[in-house]
Amino acid sequence: MASLGVNIDHIANVRQARRALEPDPVTYALLAELGGADGITVHLREDRRHIQDRDVAMLRATLRSRLNLEMAATAEMEAIALQIQPDLVTLVPEKRQEVTTEGGLDVAGQLEPLTGLVGRLQDAGIPVSLFVDAERGQLEACQRSGARWVELHTGAYAEASAQAQPLELARLTEGTFMARSLGLRVNAGHGLTYQNVEPVAAIEGMEELNIGHTIVARALAVGLETAVRQMKALVQNPRRDPLFGSTAP
Ligand code: PXP
Fold first, then answer.
1. Which pLDDT score is estimated for 76?
2. Is the CB of residue 157 less than 8 Å from the CB of residue 168?
């Protein structure tokens, strides 16, 4: 059964739109936990456009669930991770101009520096996950880097047409199997919604889904605790066959 990591970057987006004190993502993280979040994910971006350093430190001090720190593979972020000691670091590609993370990390293309960073973080007791597309070459590179986890990029599945979605789901299923055969543990995320999450949650060996946008969007109508509870129900008890359609409320 997959667990649910709730990405709360969008709460910080609203706060930063006014450079104000509210809404405070730390408060909302605790509400997400009340709704059943198994972990909280934040992306501390180089440009600090949403999550701030203070948020990460306060989350570390207050969360009862797990803290997953998404970050770029830079010296600045490495120093912050070593200081904060999150439960998991997820390394993601980062471009200043992008609206959100685009594409997976090219682990195969930068294996040497990534292997060094993964080793330093894991030697300090912080397991590392690499956000990659579900491709054999990338997954093999992830194994070579020494990382214990991968997060499979579900963006192509989420954006696919109804006809193409079964193929994208098959890629994720195969990628999960391949990663596990290589000894890697598997999370997934990006673009998942109440409507498309169930087939991904049902993949054998999938451990955690990281979901943000759709939960925060629904929270505007029903509150964050309820929005998380509704997503958790789908992630925990998904229908296996996408052709039956979603059970999303
Ligand atoms: N996983 C990763 C690596 C991400 O960068 C993001 C978006 O920040 C997510 C999951 C969550 O994506 P979404 O907000 O579309 O649910």
1. 98
2. yes
